[in-house]
Amino acid sequence: MAHVLVVEDEPDIAELVRYTLEQHGYTAACAASGEEALASLRTRLPDLIVLDLMLPGMDGLEVCRLLKHDARTANLPIVMLTARDSEADVVVGLELGADDYLTKPFSPRVLVARIKAVLRRRQVPSPAENEVIVRDQLVIHPGRHQVLVAGQVAALTPTEFRILHLLARRPGWVFTRAQIVARVQGEEAAVTERAVDVHIVALRRKLGPCAGLIETIRGVGYRFKAPED
Ligand code: CA
After folding, report:
1. If you measure from the C-alpha of residue 36 to the centroid of ligand 1, how many angstroms do you get, rounded to a whole number?
2. Distance, CA 37 to ligand 1 centroid (Å)?
3. Beta-carbon neighbour count of residue 67 at 10 Å?
4. How many angstroms does the Cα of residue 9 sit away from the middle of ligand 1?
5. Tens digit of each residue's pLDDT (9 = 90 or more) over 12-39
6. Are the beta carbons of 3 and 28 closer than 8 angstroms?
């Protein structure tokens, strides 16, 4: 049974989340501030943390930063809770290594579904660098640097290929533009955050019937559609 630490200063929300988690077979503990959360982590490590970003005192991003810089907690999955107008915080949180986020107000059942998905994704290792990826009508052959759409070779540029392969190896994971730039930087022209959008447009056009597998997360970045969605 997975144990979840809920870091949220609004008692009604914290209690509702805790109750919903317990209804779904999880155990949960609550912390009303970042300081309380860090103290709780010293005595018990949960399997996942739900972290509100707007906290009194130390904010959620600072908590996230501290957790990622401590070897003991660096791999703890984090699902962030954010206000509707805080896309910049979401981007920073994902770049710090948070796994997913939900915008308030949210449905507790959707939160539980996200938690379940994050824990499942963590268990499934991403395919090895050279492993063939097959999804619907899309086949990615990393060894050959080749992509087939409905059996036909799609003529991707090396950068388009690298972006597609990066996203497809981690279905459901949101990548920010900066993360994409950092990981696909190649020998040819430098990739910028703005250029990522251009590459994605071209990529979708070439993927034809499979274009929908690349999802835009508004204001944040892109992801390869999760199988569970
Ligand atoms: Ca709050």
Report:
1. 14
2. 13
3. 23
4. 5
5. 999 999 999 999 999 999 999 999 999 9
6. yes
